[in-house]
Specification:
The chain has about 200 residues and is an alpha/beta fold. It is built from 3 helices and 11 strands. The strands form 3 sheets. A 7-stranded mixed beta sheet has the order 3-2-1-10-7-5-4, with helices on one face. The chain has a two-stranded antiparallel sheet with strand order 6-9.
């Protein structure tokens, strides 16, 4: 997806990890047998083939078919935020299980993009990460997603990624926790999106 202007983004993706300015946001589909010793360089080469400058891009990867994505926009209480979420939970993990062990994981994943019309503080960016993760973990429980190794309720997958992008214009958002309109909007978007997309694989 290309935005009409540069957005400030915090991302845990392969391309543009950390804090970046970007106007291109990729959720790249890869097959479940994808294997690269240098995924960053491989992704850069992929973007080059698409005539995309990686320095202006945020890039996540998923083995979920992109047609299964959920796209929603929330408007209310002065907040305008859109989300694009894909979810595959075949490599679901219960992070707090005493029996959890490192294992090879596939690039399936829960990938979440949030696009916010507003000016966020550094704290607000990070609180969107927290709020979205809390909502995701709650939905794993509600949907009964199980870690296949421990047989306990999963908290997410081993390869989850998130990107929070803001226009940095318009309304000011100092915080984005669970007691704010912005935080509650994030929670609602995660809830309806994961209800649409999660399938125990």
């Amino acid at each position: 997806m290309k935005t009409s202007k540069l957005f400030k983004a915090y991302s845990s993706g392969v391309i543009g990890a950390g804090v970046a300015m970007a106007d291109m946001f990729y959720n790249r589909f890869v097959h479940k047998d994808y294997d690269s010793d240098e995924p960053l360089n491989e992704y850069k080469n992929f973007l080059k083939q698409q005539n995309v400058k990686y320095r202006d891009a945020i890039g996540l990867m998923t083995a979920v078919r992109l047609r299964e994505r959920a796209i929603y926009t929330y408007k209310g209480y002065g907040v305008t935020i859109s989300s694009i979420i894909t979810a595959g939970v075949g490599n679901a993990v219960d992070i707090i299980s005493d029996e959890a062990k490192p294992f090879y994981s596939l690039p399936g994943t829960i990938n979440m993009f949030f696009f916010i019309e507003g000016n966020l503080t550094e704290a607000a960016f990070l609180q969107v990460f927290i709020t979205a993760t809390e909502a995701k973990t709650k939905m794993m429980n509600e949907l009964g997603v199980v870690d296949p190794q421990t047989k306990t309720i999963a908290t997410g997958t081993s390869t989850d990624s998130i990107c929070v992008a803001a226009s940095q214009t318009g309304n000011d958002y100092e915080y984005a926790g669970s007691m704010t309109a912005l935080g509650q909007a994030v929670g609602k978007l995660v809830k309806i999106s994961l209800r649409d997309t999660v399938k125990q694989r």
